[in-house]
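Table S2 (text version). Query chain:
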Amino acid sequence: MTASPNQNYAVLFIGAGNITFGNDNVRWNHSLRVERCLGAQLNVVGIVDPSVERVKQVVEQKKRSSASTCYSHTRHYKSLDEAATGLEERGCTPKLIIIGAPPYFRGTKLPGRNLEEQVIAAFGKGPSIFCEKPVSTALAHESLPVVKLLNESGNRVSIGYMLRYLQVVQKAMSIIRENELTIMSITARYTCAYSRIRKVDWWDKSKQCGPIVEQATHFCDLARYLGGDIDLDTVQAYSLEHYEPPGKLSHMAIDESKIPEDERIPRATSAMWKFQNGALGSLTHLVALHDIKYSNDIVVTADGYQLRLTDLYSIPTLHVRTPESEEEKEFQFPGDDPFYSEFAALLQSERGEDITETSGGILSTYEDAYKTYEFTWKIREASEESARFLRQKK
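Corresponding structure-token output:
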């Protein structure tokens, strides 16, 4: 997108953590994508975060970067109320608000956990809103009022299910649509590398809800995106727990003894279900690998067709077998960046500009993301129920 230095596109970040500004072991860094999308138009008017030290570090790094001019007017606000007052005094209204605060603080209308409600009360329907996944850490039904709130507010809202924007995923969707395929089965596998996960809350179900709700949510969402809505009454799941011999991990970066036993995350979860159209679905999530690189794949099967999506976090590849040949055809799209595409799609929706050829507009609304959230909670609850039963049985 061509940027003009005379234009001013005000952006407010809520949360200065890794998802918004990155660290040494993650690919995600929303600020870099917004800088790329908006160029010299970008004016980061504020960062809302309680940590003075973290925001100071972020701003100092940005002022040494090629995007330094985009942060020349950035102010630090310790709370949203402080930001609303400060921006009003400056005569500044954000055009885009990026909510990267921990999910505990959003996704409900409960006091202190109602960030979306506070944002709309402070800034109205004008700003577009980008919100990270999962939508909350509350029980699924507690997020339903926020679905209604955002449906009625008039704000453009996009949720960070970036895998939908991968070109290999879009290619798979085009094959399904063009050939009018009726999906028979979707099988997903997600194995994370855990040895550098230093965030204690990630290992604590009471803080971030566990790996199905927090991490495997991406593949649960892809299963829904590719296969349609789930019959939630059919969800079944089993888990490998920390107290079972195969659940002992050798390279944890945190001291798990400080986490209550009942809140320690499962090491593996296997779930199965039926889609509303009758197709079968399954997911296996594991906390098993070392270092950084994850291993993952999702296989979509229909009459005569097999679509395999592999390595979606490193070298996304689509392998396609069709009735015409037993040999798989591979599709790769070097340089594809779904994090960029999800922001480009939001801006495209707002401006009506052809920012990216692949985005096709916003692919994950809040209401749709809520359905994924509800689905992941079903899996977690089913796995915990079976774990309790099996432990009592012993």
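Notes on Table S2: The longest helix spans residues 366-393. The CA atoms of residues 36 and 219 lie 27 Å apart.
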